[in-house]
């Protein structure tokens, strides 16, 4: 197992800072300057806690796993030995018995599927009740969340990436400015006045199948996203849609936040949120213009595949898709 870099601070979503110091096989973790956990590498791929300084073994174990997965994206799993029964029980959402007696295994692909602490308003799946809307049979959707929805520190980028709900009064001017940017106008074709854009956003707000989101780096807005339920969307007739598939529309408005390293960060965050928002979501889709080669390449780099090209009334589109298993098996999150 490769060891992650020592002493590099790793912020947690609640604002606390995780640090690590390593000497040979020993690692000391601290949280906001207070000792948290001393652990030892017993062999390649096998870790053991030596001393839990915090008194909370489960929290210390989660922090250690987060440290390794965030700092070493190539690590697919961790093996633990010598865990106390209470800590193991409290971590059972993402910890399972290993193949050898007394060992426990943490898969990266499972660890990142646990909603907290990444979701700021985590809640269980909304009870399923099928309803009809405009001739489409679909599950009744929960009300749209308001405020900050997702937050994660991107260790590779060295910045916070977060998502919040759009507020029309606060965000109208920037949304209109972004839509009237020639680069954005080329693909979105939604240029217009403030009043036209207010009506557009009010229409989205009234539509229960779409969320309007603002993407932020270090709490500075840079992008507008729409997250929609594909079953009720115009994309549904073009592929074998599932009741809980989600779709995304993407607009980067601030020039300073363009580029492949930024796209890798926010696209991973947006896809992560789409899967975490409802654990029944098995696939995330998008339909960029078929000639938007740059965006399609960015999506393919994350693990999306180009299922086919098809004709919407307003554009020739590429159907891009990523399955839950494929996303969480990759190393897009850190």
**Relative strand content:** 25-35%
Derived structural class: alpha+beta
Order of helices and strands: EEEEEHEHEEHEEEEHHHEEEHEHEEH
Mind telling me which CATH architecture of the largest domain this is?
A: 3-Layer(aba) Sandwich
Helix content: 25-40%
User: Describe the biggest sheet?
Assistant: 8 strands, mixed
CATH topology of the largest domain: Aminopeptidase
The CATH H-level homologous superfamily of the largest domain: Gcn5-related N-acetyltransferase (GNAT)
Classify the oligomer.
Answer: single chain
What can you tell me about this protein's structure?
With 334 residues, the chain is of the alpha+beta class. The chain folds into 2 domains: 10-111, 3-Layer(aba) Sandwich (Aminopeptidase), CATH 3.40.630; 130-329, Gcn5-related N-acetyltransferase (GNAT) (Aminopeptidase, 3-Layer(aba) Sandwich), CATH 3.40.630. It is 27% helix and 33% strand. The protein is built from 9 helices and 18 strands. An 8-stranded mixed sheet has the order 1-2-3-4-5-6-8-7. A hairpin with a 5-residue loop joins strand 1 and strand 2 (17-23). It is globular.
């Amino acid at each position: 197992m490769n060891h992650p870099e020592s002493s590099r601070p790793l912020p947690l979503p609640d604002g606390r800072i995780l640090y690590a110091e390593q000497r040979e096989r020993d690692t000391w973790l601290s949280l906001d300057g207070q000792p948290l956990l001393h652990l030892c590498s017993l062999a390649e791929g096998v870790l053991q806690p030596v001393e839990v300084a915090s008194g909370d073994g489960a929290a210390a174990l989660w922090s250690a796993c987060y440290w390794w997965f965030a700092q070493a994206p190539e690590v697919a799993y961790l093996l633990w030995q010598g865990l106390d029964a209470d800590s193991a029980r409290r971590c059972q959402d993402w910890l399972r018995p290993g193949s050898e007696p007394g060992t426990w295994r943490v898969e990266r692909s499972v660890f990142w599927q646990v909603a907290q602490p990444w979701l700021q308003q985590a809640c269980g799946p909304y009870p399923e009740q099928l309803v009809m809307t405009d001739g489409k049979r679909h599950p009744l959707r929960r009300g749209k969340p308001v405020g900050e929805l997702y937050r994660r520190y991107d260790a590779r980028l060295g910045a916070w990436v977060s998502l919040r709900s759009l507020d029309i009064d606060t965000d109208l001017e920037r949304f209109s400015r972004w839509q009237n940017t020639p680069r954005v106008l080329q693909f979105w074709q939604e240029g217009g006045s403030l009043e036209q854009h207010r009506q557009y956003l009010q229409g989205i707000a009234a539509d229960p199948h779409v969320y309007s989101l603002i993407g932020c780096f270090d709490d500075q807005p840079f992008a507008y996203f729409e997250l929609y339920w594909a079953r009720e969307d115009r994309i549904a007739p073009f592929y074998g849609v599932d009741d809980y598939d989600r779709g995304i529309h993407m607009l980067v408005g601030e020039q300073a936040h363009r580029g492949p390293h930024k796209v890798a960060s926010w696209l991973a965050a947006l896809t992560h949120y789409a899967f975490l928002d409802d654990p029944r979501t098995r696939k995330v889709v998008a339909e960029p213009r078929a000639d938007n080669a740059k965006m399609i390449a960015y999506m393919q780099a994350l693990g999306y595949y180009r299922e086919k090209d098809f004709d919407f009334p307003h554009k020739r589109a590429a159907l891009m898709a990523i399955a839950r298993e494929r996303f969480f098996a990759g190393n897009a999150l850190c």
